[in-house]
């Protein structure tokens, strides 16, 4: 397992970063690189540091970390939307987009500070000799400031996403209601390179993709300006995005201790964010965290919770100071027929409600199980003392990764691999599970 996982990361290494997949995703992706660094630290702490340094070198002046950093040696038509669509060096100029590298203009979940702290711990002597933490800390702090200030579009203290791609779970049913208000871009306006490498039944529909393109086009044409009031647009407060931000705030506090910087404000901020997450996104009647729609067309609907049971609502289990009554209820939801945690028929946690009308075991984030979300759930279970359940989930993840050649995602019932094979974060997180639990 170690040899095969390491071989995947070696094959996907470009010299400065790791592509998620040589075929489907030939550039550097933001949260992919964070998860990859977590596993890569067990193979090469130096490469893990370079992974994060390469990503953060493409940070914009306003603090955002773009969700894609484009490799100039890859043909423009190898992936859509490519650099000629995003036009970061021109449309992003006012927001401080870098001039020497092309990027997208949207972001992805902020798991980077957690990754940086774990990478440092793999070889502290190397990290200190290269001043790794002292160089990435200001960039990570600026990244968090951007999210906490520019993206607090709901005014409640949480960061909002302005595109489904930003949350990472691209076509989750959690986005169906807010996306339904978006007029799709015409099919003639784009060509989907993803269908050259993935089965259409596994990928987002043409209608959804047209809406993604429309949202990205409008954001680009607004020069990537984050606006607090865009009627009928897309702005959603998401549980997992904010839970990862809180977890990374805790990691930044640990980094600050290492660097001899003040930590009180960071700990206090993490606690405030946890309280805001519970206040704004927790539904005690259902025992679940839901997304909040900030752009619904009527005053009665604006700010309403979206009652879709996505795995995003389970990710707050990673938070160390989640109130006990919330943790207990959330664990009950995870074990319910909606997600089947711990049951013999569902060994990996699906991306969406198994009992819901939108569930599809094959189509991207509408049902399949993913290794990164299961890694986060496993981490949350262990954090809250559910060791036996965490061990079972760890074993299922490792067995499935090996059996599917590190598939991108799997059918939660059959565990058959779907999407790309030799997927980098599947290999990297398998390495982390092997190392951390043996």
UniProtKB/TrEMBL annotation:
Residues 25-426 form the Mannosylglycerate hydrolase MGH1-like glycoside hydrolase domain. Keywords: Glycosidase, Hydrolase. Transmembrane segments: none annotated. One of its GO terms (biological process) is oligosaccharide metabolic process. The keyword Glycoprotein does not apply. InterPro entries: 6-hairpin_glycosidase_sf, 6hp_glycosidase-like_sf, Glycoside_hydrolase_63, MGH1-like_GH. One of its GO terms (molecular function) is Glc3Man9GlcNAc2 oligosaccharide glucosidase activity. PANTHER family: MANNOSYL-OLIGOSACCHARIDE GLUCOSIDASE (PTHR10412). Belongs to the glycosyl hydrolase 63 family. This is Mannosylglycerate hydrolase MGH1-like glycoside hydrolase domain-containing protein. It comes from Streptomyces antnestii.
């Amino acid at each position: 397992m170690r040899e095969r996982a390491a071989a995947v990361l070696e094959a996907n290494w470009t010299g400065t970063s790791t592509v998620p997949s040589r075929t489907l995703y030939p550039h550097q992706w933001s949260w992919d690189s964070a998860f990859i660094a977590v596993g890569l630290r067990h193979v090469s702490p130096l490469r893990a540091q370079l992974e994060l340094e390469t990503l953060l070198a493409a940070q914009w002046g306003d603090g955002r970390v773009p969700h894609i950093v484009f490799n100039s040696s890859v043909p423009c038509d190898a992936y859509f939307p490519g650099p000629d669509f995003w036009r970061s060096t021109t449309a992003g100029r006012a927001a401080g987009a870098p001039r020497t590298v092309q990027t997208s203009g949207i972001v992805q979940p902020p798991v980077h500070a957690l990754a940086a702290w774990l990478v440092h711990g793999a070889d502290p002597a190397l990290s200190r000799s290269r001043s790794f933490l002292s160089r990435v800390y200001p960039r990570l702090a600026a990244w968090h400031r951007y999210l906490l200030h520019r993206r607090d579009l709901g005014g409640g203290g949480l960061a909002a996403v302005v595109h489904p791609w930003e949350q990472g779970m691209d076509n989750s049913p959690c986005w169906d209601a807010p996306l339904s208000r978006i007029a799709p871009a015409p099919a003639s306006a784009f060509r989907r390179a993803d269908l050259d490498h993935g089965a259409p039944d596994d990928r987002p529909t043409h209608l959804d993709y047209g809406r993604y393109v429309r949202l990205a086009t409008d954001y680009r044409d607004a020069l990537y300006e984050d606006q607090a009031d865009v009627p009928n647009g897309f702005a959603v407060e998401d549980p997992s995005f904010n839970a990862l931000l809180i977890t990374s705030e805790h990691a930044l506090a640990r980094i600050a201790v290492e660097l001899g910087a003040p930590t009180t404000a960071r700990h206090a901020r993490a606690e405030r964010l946890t309280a805001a997450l519970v206040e704004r996104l927790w539904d005690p009647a259902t025992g679940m965290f839901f997304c909040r729609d900030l752009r619904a067309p009527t005053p009665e609907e604006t700010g309403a919770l979206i009652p879709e049971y996505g795995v995003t609502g389970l990710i707050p289990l990673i938070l160390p100071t989640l109130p006990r009554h919330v943790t207990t209820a959330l664990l009950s939801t995870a074990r319910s027929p909606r997600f089947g945690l711990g049951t013999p028929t569902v060994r990996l946690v699906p991306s969406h409600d198994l009992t819901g009308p939108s569930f599809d075991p094959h189509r991207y984030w509408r049902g399949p199980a993913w290794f990164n979300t299961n890694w986060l759930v496993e981490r949350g279970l262990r954090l809250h003392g559910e060791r036996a359940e965490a061990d079972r989930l760890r074993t299922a993840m490792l067995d499935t990764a090996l059996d599917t050649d590190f598939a991108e995602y799997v059918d939660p019932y059959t565990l058959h691999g779907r999407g790309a094979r030799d997927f980098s974060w599947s290999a990297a997180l398998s390495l982390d599970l092997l190392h951390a639990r043996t």
